[in-house]
Design goal:
The complex is a heterodimer of chains A (415) and B (225). Chain A is α+β, with helices and mostly antiparallel strands and 415 residues long. Helices cover 55% and strands 17% of the residues of chain A. Chain A contains 16 helices and 10 strands. Chain A has a 6-stranded mixed barrel with strand order 2-3-8-5-7-6, surrounded by 4 helices. In chain A, helix 14 packs antiparallel against helix 15. The longest helix of chain A has 39 residues. The two termini of chain A are 33 Å apart. The radius of gyration of chain B is 17 Å and the shape is globular. In chain B, strands 6-7-8-3-9-10 form a 6-stranded mixed sheet. In chain B, strands 2-1-4-5 form a 4-stranded antiparallel sheet, covered by helices on one side. Classes of the chains: A alpha+beta (415), B alpha/beta (225). Chains A and B meet through helix 1, helix 13, helix 14 and helix 16 of A and helix 2 and helix 3 of B. Chain A: Keywords: Cell membrane, Membrane, Transmembrane, Transmembrane helix. Chain A: Belongs to the ABC-4 integral membrane protein family. LolC/E subfamily. Chain A: Pfam families: FtsX, MacB_PCD.
Chain lengths: 415, 225
């Protein structure tokens, strides 16, 4: 075996308690890092999944709230124009040529699916119960491609909707409140006062209360009829892309091409996702603090070891070990401490994460969640060990380098 | 015909702390192959300082140092460390073994560092050296558990392990009782006589010095005889 490694090993083993204490410092640092990052990224992924349930990667719609210029501004662009009491124009929120746009988008290799949608506010009447909600007119097969609806069906089937023109798939919360079952007839009333009788052919549960309690799906043509609109009337195009991480860029491109507002999922859920950044900052700042403390521990212990080993260093240098060899001996010791300490830390972090995953957590009516969401992504274990070894290498390097520059004559004379 | 193994030319050395003081003044000396040389002088005469210069551990001096026809002044510290490892064996007044290692490991370490032979070969060689010093039976003991005399003999075995050109001793018997002193001296004598080993030893023991092949006496940083 390499003589430097042998000496480093002997030094470590001759003071097992001190070595263990130094290792435990790193172990706790890395263990806490793994535990915190598993919980925090678990929560982040969970919120991200929630947003993925409720919104598509990109949603294309007509933005009627965008401020528009007045006629005065248009004919007299220079000068100070002031128009009192500008009222919104009675604009249709229909996307022009929606089906053609959908066809063009489907040919894009970066796009997996495009689902047209038309949403209307409705009242659900079943017997004496009257509930406020919304009905989404969809092409159910396209919708399934985007949101994987078929896996979220509690009762009935998606195909029943295609064969039943007045069919309706309702959310589980809604079904519970209305005590509606498959085959029941519901009366839907639109804000325009149109009533329509619909048959329940399916019940879905997305796990998100704000959707399950209010939404139902129907055929797009049925909702068009309900609103008294023509067959080209579509208000939304939901788009699924191959890489949802780059949806923002894609949305900008689509908006520039078609002139309609394209909103990516991150923008649509910015409030929900803001928490993720704060959690990341917290995790890293706490972990770095812990590691710095562990680093100082190693620095201290190594400094003490080197002080105690002055004589040995003098002998080694006198018998022909160069400064870099002496530095290597002590740096090896801190790297062994760092590596073993980090490995133990990974195990500790993993065990604690397993325990945390058992902790019951009631998400209430809003979230279908019964224990803390924990992420076991190996990527963070790699980061953990790299982090641990780097800190100890740095903490060990400073005193080790000093040890290399010790003048043997001073020690030999000084005795 | 005696061949010169070590040669110095005009070596001067200053100490700067706490005030500038010239400790070695224009030292010219030659050491011949196979001789047992002693350096004597009162404390403060510069004999130990001179030995450290000759050993290449301290290269902060003026003048020239030449060992085995190789000019060593101006060489890099790493090169000198390698040179010491291969060609110079050191024996100190205080035994200076690595306390956590066994006697055998202490002897082996400089050879492992040199890396010329396999570990098994080095082990046999180390055992031979310990046997030469008469302490082969102590080989597997941790060095801190050995007596002073035994430790010094382990240190000599360590100095011998790489078959050095020169063994340098800094008061090698200074901390030993008369029996162990005699053993160490006799060992040195035997090494020069039987193996042709060159030895330079600093000592203030006149009896020790008088029995060596040649004595160099120093006073106030100069060689007087």
């Amino acid at each position: 075996m390499n003589v430097i490694l042998t000496i480093a090993k002997t030094h470590l083993l001759s003071k097992p308690k001190q070595t263990l204490v130094a290792m435990l410092g790193v172990t706790f640092g890395i263990g806490m890092f793994i535990m915190m990052i598993s919980l925090m990224t678990g929560l982040n992924n969970f919120t991200e999944d929630l947003t993925k349930i409720s919104s598509a990667d990109i949603r294309l719609y007509k933005d009627v709230t965008e401020p528009r210029s007045t006629i005065l501004d248009r004919i007299h662009p220079i000068g100070l124009n002031h128009v009192h009491s500008v009222k919104p124009k009675n604009e249709s929120d229909k996307i022009r040529n929606a089906r053609q746009i959908a066809e063009i988008l489907r040919e894009d290799p970066e796009i997996i699916g495009v689902a047209p949608r038309l949403t209307s506010q409705v009242f659900y009447n079943f017997g004496p119960v009257k509930l406020n909600g919304s009905v989404a007119g969809v092409d159910i097969l396209e919708e399934d491609k985007l949101f994987n609806l078929s896996s979220k069906m509690k009762a009935g089937s998606l195909s029943a909707l295609i064969t039943t023109s007045n069919g309706l798939i309702i959310g589980s919360g809604l079904a519970k409140k209305l005590s509606a079952k498959l085959g029941d007839l519901l009366i839907l009333t639109t804000p325009q006062g149109v009533t329509y009788s619909m048959k329940v052919v399916g019940i879905f549960q997305l796990g998100l209360g704000e959707i399950d309690n209010v939404r139902s799906y129907s055929n797009i043509s049925t909702v068009q009829k309900l609103l008294g609109k023509d067959a080209g009337y579509i208000t939304d195009l939901n788009i699924k892309t191959t890489d949802y991480r780059s949806a923002k860029l894609k949305a900008e491109k689509i908006q520039a091409t078609f002139g309609e507002k394209a909103e990516d999922w991150e923008t649509a859920n910015s409030t929900l996702l803001a928490g993720a950044i704060i959690r990341d900052i917290m995790t890293y700042s706490v972990s770095i603090t812990l590691l710095i403390v562990a680093g100082f521990g190693i620095y201290n212990i190594l400094n003490m070891t080197i002080y105690n080993k002055m004589k040995d260093i003098a002998i080694l240098k006198a018998t022909g070990f160069a400064a870099k060899d002496v530095t290597a001996i002590f740096l090896t010791q801190s790297l062994i401490i760092g590596l073993l300490g980090s490995l133990m830390g990974l195990i500790m972090g993993f065990v604690f994460s397993l325990l945390l995953a058992q902790v019951p957590f009631d998400g209430g009516e809003l979230l279908a969640l019964d224990s803390l969401p924990i992420n076991f992504d190996p990527q963070y274990y790699v980061i953990g060990i790299v982090f641990g070894v780097l800190t100890t290498a740095l903490a060990g390097w400073i005193p080790s380098r000093k040890a290399g520059y010790i003048d043997p004559i001073e020690i030999i004379r000084g005795i | 015909m005696k061949s010169v193994l070590l040669k110095t030319q005009g070596i001067t050395k200053y100490f700067h702390d706490p005030y500038t003081f010239q400790v070695l003044k224009d030292i010219d000396m030659e050491v011949y192959k196979g001789e047992f040389l002693s350096l004597v002088g009162k404390s403060g005469s510069g004999k130990s300082t001179l030995l450290y210069l000759l050993s290449t551990m301290d290269m902060d001096f003026g003048g020239k140092l030449n060992i085995n026809s190789e000019e060593l002044t101006g060489k890099s510290p790493d090169y000198l460390a390698r040179f010491r490892n291969e060609h110079i064996g050191f024996v100190f007044q205080f035994h200076f073994l690595l306390p956590e290692f066994t006697a055998l490991e202490n002897v082996m370490i400089p050879a492992l560092k040199l890396g010329k032979f396999s570990e098994a070969k080095i082990k046999t060689k180390a055992m031979e050296k310990l046997d030469l010093l008469g302490i082969a039976d102590q080989a597997s003991k941790v060095s801190s558990k050995l007596s002073g005399g035994q430790q010094q003999r382990v240190a000599i075995a360590r100095a011998l392990i790489n078959d050095p050109l020169i063994i340098m001793g800094d008061e090698p018997t200074g901390n030993l009782d008369s029996i162990n002193s005699k053993i160490v001296f006799d060992t040195f004598k035997r090494l020069t006589r039987d193996l042709g080993q060159t030895i330079i030893a600093v000592t203030h023991d006149e009896d020790f010095a008088s029995r060596t092949d040649r004595t160099i006496e120093m006073k106030d940083g100069k060689i007087t005889s």
